[in-house]
Amino acid sequence: MCRHLGWLGRPRTLAELMLEPPHSLLVQSYAPRRQRHGLLNADGWGAGFFDVSGGGPPRRWRSAAPLWGDASFASVAPALASGCVVAAVRSATAGMPIEASATAPFTDGTWLLSHNGVVNRAVLPTAEGAESVCDSAILAAAVFARGPETLGELIPEIGAADPGARLNVLAADGSRLLATTWGDTLSMLHGADGVVLASEPYDDDPRWVDIPDRHLVEAHGGQVRVTALDGIR
Ligand code: GLN
Predict the structure, then answer these.
(1) pLDDT (tens digit per residue) in 26-60
(2) What pLDDT was estimated at residue 1?
(3) Least C-beta-crowded within 10 Å: which of 52, 92, 111, 121?
(4) String of b and e for 71-104 (b: at least 16 CB within 10 Å)?
(5) Per DSSP, what are the bridge partners of residue 87?
(6) pLDDT over 90 percentage in the chain
(7) pTM of structure
């Protein structure tokens, strides 16, 4: 189970979001607080973000090495600011390749997507363009093919096809941030300057709210909507 984080709001640096908080993704890479599956997230990390000026494809920096050892990223991250970020640290599922292309965030050139969990690849709808044979990369391709706007229908469908799947997905396109909970943790910090969605809180701010399991979170234009995924939406 990896840990991921999304930000939508005023421009913030990747260092502020990923490295500086007391329980940042950096700390979560070796000492996560709420992780139920796996102890460490040492199998790589990735940061994806949209330019502050708006428009254009997302930019990504991914690695198959642990985040804690990346002195180059630590040096540059304070200078990389964005109003829309998807970042993750990875604990590879047994049997999945450990390579940068298997590391979130994945992209179709418009959206960024991260997956916390595991899914049987055989139940996923076939889609072109998976970046890796990793389950998360194939899931990302399936979501991109259907359109991340349909996550609210697609995740329950995949969950029904693979009852053992854990399907916490986080996706963003520069102006929208979407997330599902399906088998693992997700917390939200919604402040005046934007919204953070994270597998676990990166600090002890009392405003963090835990999102219940099997829910969809949609953030756009300063508003956040949380809806149940089971039953009629
Ligand atoms: N199954 C994915 C992988 O192997 C995600 C793993 C996870 O969430 N720990 O990378």
Answers:
(1) 999 999 999 888 889 999 999 999 999 988 999 99
(2) 59
(3) 52
(4) eebbeebeebbbbbbbbbbbbbbeebeebbebbb
(5) 5, 47
(6) 94
(7) 0.96
User: What is the distance between the alpha carbons of residues 7 and 197, in angstroms, rounded to a whole number?
Assistant: 7
CB atoms within 10 A of CB 132: 18
Domain boundaries, given as residue ranges, for the chain: 3-228
SS3 assignment, position 128: coil
Of 7, 54, 1, whose CA–CA distance to 172 is shortest?
A: 7
pLDDT per residue as tens digits for the range 129-143: 999 999 999 999 999
Residue 216 has pLDDT above 50, yes or no: yes
Q: Which residue has 């997507």 as its token pair?
A: 113
Task: Verify whether ligand 1 is closer than 6 Å to residue 170 (CB atom).
Answer: no
Please state which CATH class domain 3-228 belongs to: alpha beta
Residue with the smallest CA separation from ligand 1 atom 10 is 92
Whether 35 is in the pocket of ligand 1, judged by its Cβ within 6 Å, is no
Cα distances (Å, whole numbers) of residue 3 to 109, 169, 189, 230, 233:
23, 11, 16, 24, 27
Question: Ligand 1 centroid to 53 CA: how many Å?
Answer: 32
Three-state SS for 164?
coil
**Which residue has a Cα nearest atom 1 of ligand 1?**
118
59, 106 Cβ separation under 8 angstroms = no
